[in-house]
Amino acid sequence: MTKTSAPKAKEKKLILGLPKGSLQEATFLMMKKAGFTFRADSRSYKPSVDDPTIEARLLRAQEISRYVELGLLDAGITGHDWIYENGSDVTEVSELLYAKQGMRPVRWVLAVPESSPIKSIKDLQGKRIATEAVGLTKRFLAQHDITADVEFSWGATEAKTPDLVDAIVELTETGSSLRANNLRIVETILESTTRMIANNEAWKDEWKRAKMEQISLLLKGALLAESKVLLKMNASKGNVDRIAKLLPALHAPTINPLSSDGWVAIESVVEETVVRDLIPQLKKAGAEGIIELPLNKVIP
Fold this sequence. Notes:
The protein is of the alpha/beta class. The protein has three domains: 14-102 and 194-225, D-Maltodextrin-Binding Protein, domain 2 (3-Layer(aba) Sandwich), CATH 3.40.190; 106-192, Periplasmic binding protein-like II (D-Maltodextrin-Binding Protein, domain 2); 228-294, Alpha-Beta Plaits. The chain has helices at residues 24-34, 61-70, 80-86, 134-143, 176-180, 200-204, 206-225, 240-246, 275-284, and strands at residues 14-20, 38-39, 48-49, 54-60, 75-79, 91-96, 106-113, 128-131, 149-152, 167-172, 183-192, 194-198, 228-236, 254-257, 263-271, 288-294. A five-stranded mixed beta sheet has the order 4-1-5-12-6, sandwiched between helices. Strand 8, helix 4 and strand 9 form a beta-alpha-beta unit. The model has no long low-confidence stretch (mean pLDDT 91).
C-alpha cells in the first residue's frame, strides 16, 4: 500500500501594485537596488520578480490606491496625489522620495498662458479649467470659495489653453514643459511624493505586514544611498584628528589600524555633493590612497 504525502501548505503571497507608465522605470530601478528584480515586457501587466512570495501587478498610479483600499491589492506604490484624489482609506507604510526624473517631490500647479489676464486664484471665478485631477482641483477651488467649470482632460492638457480652456491644473517636476508651452504657473495646489501604502486588513496580517516592512526598509535604504558615497583612505595616526574633523559621517568615521605601524584606515559615508570639495581638503590634511565608492543601500 503506497503512502500518500500530506498536501503542501499554500505558499504565502503579497499582492503588490506597481505604477505602470512614467514612474515604472524609476520604480523598477529602486526595487532592484533594494534587492528585488522585476521584469516586464511592454505588453505585460504581471511582471516577474525574483521573490516567490511577491506577486506583482502593473497598474496606472491613478488606480492603485483604490484597489489597495478594496483589498484587491495588499500593498502598492503610488503618489500621495492619487491617494488624495481618490480619497482612499489606506495605511501609509512609508514615504519614498523619488519621481520619474529625480529625487524630488512633484507638484500639481495651476497654469495659464503667459498672455492670460488671470493673475491669482480669484480670477478663476466662472472660468473653465482642464485637468486629470478633477477631485483635487474642485477641492482646492472650494477651499477658496471659487466656482469654476472643471473638466477631465484625457491628455495633451497643456495644448488646451487658450483656445479650449482658460487654465489647466497639471503635474510638473521642474516646470520646463510648462515653460516650453508658454504657460505661467499661478499657484501650486499640491506637492506630492511617492508612497508605499497597504490595505488596512492586510496591514493587520502579521506575515504580510512583516513583508511590507521588509520591502519598505530596503527601498528607503536604496533611496538614501542615492545621494551618498563611501570614502576610504589611509593616514598616519598624527593626521587622524585633522581628517576626522573634515568628515561628515552618519555617526563618526570608522578608523581601523593597518599592519604598518603608525597608520590607520579611515572610512565614512558622506553626501556625494560635498565630495568634489572634500577630497582636496582630505589630501591636504594628510589622507592618502583616497577611494570613492558608490552605495546600493544605507540603513541608518
